[in-house]
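Annex B.
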Amino acid sequence: MPRIFPQIDFDHFYESNYSFMAIISRAGCGKTIILNHLVERHLATEENSKKNDTLLFLTAREIFEDQINYTTVEERIKAKIGLDVRTDLVAFFTQHHQQKGSKFIIIIDGFSEITAHNDVKVAMFDKLINLICTIGDSTGVKLMFAMRSNMWNRFFDRIRGMSFVLGRWFPGICFDIKDQSNIPPLALEEIDEILLKIDPQKTNCLTTEVKSQLKYPSYIQWYYLLKGEFPHFDTTSDLIFYEIIDRFIVQKVFESTYATEKVAFCKKLSSLIRGQKSAPKSAVLHDLATFKNAYKELLADGILMEEKKEEDDGFTEEHVRFVQPHVFEYFLFLDLYHRANKKMDNHFFEQIYKQYTSNTSRFQLLQWSAKFATMKGDEVALQALLSLSLSNYEKKSLIHFITEYLNYSNHSKQLAYHFPFEKIHKVVYNQLAPLDFIDSHYIETISSLIEVPAKRSQTFRYLTILAIYNSLSLQPNELIKNIAEIEKLNFNTSNLAFPTLRLLNDIYQHLLGNRGSDEDLLLKIEEFKQLKLNFNTVKNYILNDLDMLNLALIMIHQSIHQAKEIPRTINAISTYLTDFLMNESTFSAYFLSVINFTDFKKETENNNISSKIKSKLHLKTAHNSTQFSKSLYLLSKAYRNLKKSNYNRAIIYAEKSLELFQRNKLKLIEIALYDLLDELYELTGNKEKRNNCLYLKMKYFKQQQVSPLLFREDFK
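NACHT domain-containing protein: predicted structure tokens.
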């Protein structure tokens, strides 16, 4: 895909009085591709002034190496185009330009192939400078070449004091003096265009954050290779980028020449940089003597770069840094890992947490740790990692990252034969907040876990959670798929208080608008509401997480089937689970938020809820609440203000809640919010917004495979 800026640069350079232009960047940024596109575009031009131009595309080896029989670059070029050796090259094409308007464009690529030979490099710079001086101010000859940033730095040092040469140089509109590059990273629009060509069906699968990390053409190449190997694996975390970095390091470091020296030097440099962006070159001078060749290759391959920095005393000092922060963080992790004798325990993670608290590298170090621990099947390390006092976002992102890497590694056959899947599942599930449907990664995490080998009981849990989400989202087509997968699993649920499959099937039938119901199921639910269901002596019986998932399904079932019966259902839950609701578990927080929401939604206060539960509800939000639970508390504030006739405040809370539930596609609650806002807009006389609410609700029923019978009075 041709980029826009090189075409603008070249057109300006072509028409200007500048003699030479260099395409400069680190390795893997597409210098050769840019030159090729410019040549193709120039050859295809219909402009009369350019049709007769002469283009000579050369490699650096062709004119700078093995020049036994040629004393100057000019003579080598004349030999290439068949010009008589006695002819003055520049004078010939200058005259040609004056007579016919055509130009001679020399393009040189492949300088990186001769960077290892110092004697050749010195001679090459001299010959290149001589060529530029020979061209001088001729308007008939143009010189273009591509160089890596580290080589350009050396070349620029040679011409820094040559005002004539510097005056003939066109740096380009995107030249960045700090990075010594005039090739900017790919823009998101360019990345989208490339991804569309790679896989038209999956362009929107990657998040904007992940796409922005694919800003260098070499990373796009790795992405293309990964998609070729695993076409059906899609990721919504930044796992794909970590895998690209991993493969890049393996190729450029671990599987290259001087691999041992490169790893040792990178680890040493990363430890020196800690908390900084670079390290003084003087700090690694001793190591450079030992790792001379390794260091040169690290520079040439775009892993390291040198830059000059002005110190506080006014003097300029040369610094060394990693080109990519993620490569630096990889080697920093590797250094910390080896210092800890390859043992990732509580002490290891606590040290990272404390030492890098305000450092942007901290979370990346934790992600590299998660990747290594998952690959090794080290459930102890994963448990220690997820037990850190992380922010809600960090913990959820790490869990999502771990599950996607587990899924990817299983697909790519990277895991050992005796990989402890069961133990890893247990660690992740215990750290995963239940039913947190407001978390953008929650459903993606559950979907990844389903793809990884697990015990039937664990897979049953994951499928039930997905079914709850699809019930709340009013997606019967997805729900029936969940039901089919659960049936295929053939998991024994006879020990549960309620039959999960029968609950799901009845919800599915109601979503389709079928009036018939499972009478035995309804009878059992009625017994539950009448407190006649025997939960193994009720108070002494400890409900497991599967029972909790079924209670969540009963709430959804009643909301769809008999909304007026929800208060009795809440009474039963609060009676059966009084002691359980007093603990600090996330399931307890979930049901407290549901109780709080339904209590404020009713017109009269529920006097059957125990005083202990009411006192806990007065805390507004329970400890350890998930984002979903907190969103229900927010919604309850809308109903509370409605009761108090604070209509404008109620509208504010309702609209905020609507935005949350819309974004996460929780349609059952969204439709309830339309009804609430309809009432509030009527009370405040806002007919326009009231009509809009009605329109959005009717539009949804028209577009989705859901029966309009859900749109009925007793739903409110």
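The first helix runs from residue 4 to 15. Confidence is low (pLDDT under 50) at residues 536-542. Further annotation is deferred to the next reporting cycle.
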